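sorry for the late reply, my laptop died twice this morning and i had to redo everyting from scratch. anyway the thing you sent over, i finally got around to it. pasting the sequence first so we're on the same page, its 1202 residues, then the predicted structure underneath. double check i copied it right bc i was rushing
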Amino acid sequence: MAGSGLKRRRRRRIHLSKLYTLTCTQAFFKQDHSQIGGPGYSRLVFINEPDSPEADSSSYSDNYVRTTKYTLATFLPKSLFEQFRRVANFYFLVTGVLSFTPLAPYTAASAIFPLLFVIGATMVKEGVEDWRRNKQDIEVNNRRVKVHRGDGNFDSKEWKTLSVGDIVKVEKNQFFPADLVLLSSSYEDAICYVETMNLDGETNLKVKQGLEVTSSLREDFNFKGFEAFVKCEDPNANLYSFVGTMELKGTKYPLSPQQLLLRDSKLRNTEFIFGAVIFTGHDTKVIQNSTDPPSKRSMIERKMDKIIYLMFFMVVLMSFIGSVIFGVTTRDDFKDGVVKRWYLRPDSSSIFFDPKRAHVAAFYHFLTAAMLYSYFIPISLYVSIEIVKVLQSIFINQDIHMYYEEANKPARARTSNLNEELGQVDTILSDKTGTLTCNSMEFIKCSVAGTAYGRGVTEVEMAMGRRKGSPLVLQGNESDDVEYSKEPFAEEPTVKGFNFRDERIMNGNWVTEPHADVIQKFMRLLAVCHTVIPEGDEDTEKISYEAESPDEAAFVIAARELGFEFYNRTQTSISVRELDLVTGKRVERLYKVLNVLEFNSTRKRMSVIVQDEDGKLLLLCKGADNVMFERLSKNGREFEVETRDHVNEYADAGLRTLILAYRELDEKEYKDFSVRISEAKSSVSADRESLIEEVTEKVEKDLILLGATAVEDKLQNGVPDCIDKLAQAGIKIWVLTGDKMETAINIGFASSLLRQDMKQIIINLETPEIHSLEKTGEKDAIAKASKENVLLQIINGKAQLKYAGGNSDAFALIIDGKSLAYALDDDIKHIFLELAVGCASVICCRSSPKQKALVTRLVKSGNGKTTLAIGDGANDVGMLQEADIGVGISGVEGMQAVMSSDIAIAQFRYLERLLLVHGHWCYRRISTMICYFFYKNITFGFTLFLYEAYTTFSSTPAYNDWFLSLYNVCFSSLPVIALGVFDQDVSARYCLKFPLLYQEGVQNVLFSWRRILGWMFNGFYSAVIIFFLCKSSLEPQAFTHQGKTPGKEILGGTMYTCIVWVVNLQMALAISYFTLIQHIVIWGSILVWYLFMTVYGELPSEISTSAYRVFVEALAPSLSYWVITLFVVVSTLLPYFIYSAVQMRFFPMYHGMIQWLRYEGQCNDPEYCDMVRQRSIRPTTVGFTARLEAKKRSVRRSEPES
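ok and here's the structure:
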């Protein structure tokens, strides 16, 4: 048994040595190798020589990594600096400092306490967040790895102790502790498999290979006496480049990215590796890449800053007015021996009331008033909003309706700064593959030797049938939204990735086809031309495939299902079981892999060079049609016309296509190529990649066409419904994709972004003039003509829009990547944006990642409205970071988009709930919360101004010092926080049922200047009513049963009580959805005021000062106090109540309409609900609901003619 287990482990070890990239059989150096040691290439590493004086690495960073914002020493100064960068906080700091001077109208303690409370709460929040990051840092830095300590022995040490030049041993499933040069591995050829998900989000494994000269160092004791010297590039952020040399025993060897193992990537499918530390700590490439994401602030937050400045202006204005009046009054206080304000003793006063120095007294009064009126500015606004946003984010994260059970992925708000922005989105810019579609590819059709195979029907073809009236569509259904009949080929595929049905070539029947030899080469290319890793199950003997992309896996699975099974790979070979055309038997064939020319977005193709068992050298190539057809030889175009037609048909059906071709190489040509590719790869110059590209260009030519593949990337569940609801909400949707125009258009039809009656404005450069220039003209001439052509097409498109005028015609703009490059030029982009904004739907095809980001920037800056970008891949990162809100789909393409996003969701359809429910709620809550904050502070602060005016601006506050200080902190803050977290104008069901409601956010009706100023006016007139009613009610008569008239303390206490009641009951009137928590905080705040008055008044008079026993002895026993409070509160709230009732009944906003529907029980009346919904359907709206409406309009227009 033990022998059997050992044998199995050996088989497993050999089996895992699979993937082979580009062969470099011999190291070559070019003349430009001399740049090593020059600027940018000056790093010197002495490997395994810790005691050498030359190996002093003290100048290099240590391996301790810190991601925290603060340290213990910098927390206090840095955090305080962050807090006082806010204008409001700085203002309160200045008033707090001035409160220690005689100018202060209140005690210093009462001024400093609320500031300390707010700043302290925010600093505690910052500290807790940073402490959590510090815990993560400690956990990472204390991870352990085996390090060579000399004499061939390895000891376990913490990551943070590593130094440049150390040799480490990393074992399977461990992370690399620093950037390492791979020396050797558990495989004889020194290869290893690396998972880089933490770096680029990609889930596929990458293969790395050490130098041949160090591949034999596979045991611990081999490193006794081992020494090497590395010269390489300086630390930089480029993950995909590395240039250097290793000097070993007097010989230099080139180093490339193939030997570099990056920190935080993981060792997989390899028992162990030995590596030398090259970059440590903050010099590692992953840390060099960890720049802070762009700072994003919501439109509401930016507008709130303007309101703060307005409030500052009001404070300054009131202080100025008061100081002028005070100065004039003071000057006239002592005139001709007559004393007007005798109680101020102007004849013997100090500077504050000295009539002889009235101008100085006025200036001092200005400073005093600026401190007193500081209560206009809500000191707790910022911290309250932060608390509310964090709690809102928790509700988003825990929403079960946005939890994707299949992948166990909930929604995740990665930042809480943009919650309210979710309710104001005007334009969505979406990726297609993996975002609208599943990125789960199925091989469904192919074209071989000019013959089309595959009888499957795609979702796009179903949508095309619906709009063209195909006989495949079920009859008898009046709806435009019918489905295809379920044919056998439309069933779910039994093999994942393979949905192909065609008896002509399945089950070995291809051998009877006219071009069986071409079919054989086609299938063989599918089975050999790839970088897939086979994983064999030793118990079931079934083979699964691990591929870099879903397309790759689909091709290999298709080849297997059609009789060409790829089952094993070693470093230099691929093994395939295939059907022999001559004998008709299944045979095993071995293909020696000589080179793999890998796919990238620039090349748009990949090739392998293999040698078959007969010694033939074959170049097998697959790639995009626009790069492959131009590489065909004259005698290799036999099936070109038919293949082009089939590719166009496949694109029309929404399928992703690749062209397959091959050629035979002679030995001389291959030897020449092998030398040149080795030289290019061994180059350490900056243009290394272009040298490689130049060599591959020369060999990937004169190809013979075999055919084309077509794979389907299906729409995600719920995408058409989601797009329909978002469109009804008035949100514009743009699609930015790298796919062909035909594929993108048909996905647009399938997802209801396009419809049959839309007029398509297509902008591309596929014109005879441009084609002829490309063949004969120079680059400058081509660029100039192309730009003029694009501009002309854009102008013509705008003319079409203008001509349509007020008609109900809807336009769709479709532009390809080549044209988009010119449309985004500075002198054209604004014209292009005007055209795009006028269209119902915009689709940008063949877009590069940079173009996606530039389009997003153009839309964001051009129309000044909120943009949301959504994508799932690394190519969407720029777009996500550029948009106001970036939403990452945690899908098949890894986590790179998620890591760069503001919010992560698992499926596109969850965007509907995220925006229409959470977005609307958060926008409404934050808007109302901010307006209410300013209302309650104006109500409070303006009574101070009125009282001071009543006392001829003598700088006397109406209230006790601690009444002033605790107003924002204790008596009015919790209700507004509860509103920000719990309030709902309508339920989630009605938010989704009536998407029209979302327009409140898009039009910003709840946070417009009209509404803000309305709330401010509410505060001003509330203050006026409270002050004058309280003053008038208390002035003429005795207040207590002893007959005493009210003084400042009684007037101030009564006014303050009325304010606490009014602002809290105003909150009750503003709330649409009461919860137990809201009842507790509203009535609790009022109760806390009475408790505070009682307890504070019982304290010694030295502490309670003017509030000493005022409530117990004066206010509470007096019936007039309670009557006045009731009368004033009702009188103050009555105007708002009448205004709200009239508006709700006769001029309701969107949410008011829906509340009336619910109140009158008409929510289940389909006809009435449909009438309300129609307000959000315009001719330019997309989605299937709009499509049905367009169809009805078309029928109505045609009725008179018939």
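The chain has five domains: 74-138+295-370, 145-289, 414-436+719-905, 438-466+494-682+691-713, 917-1163.
thats about all i looked at so far, will dig more tmrw
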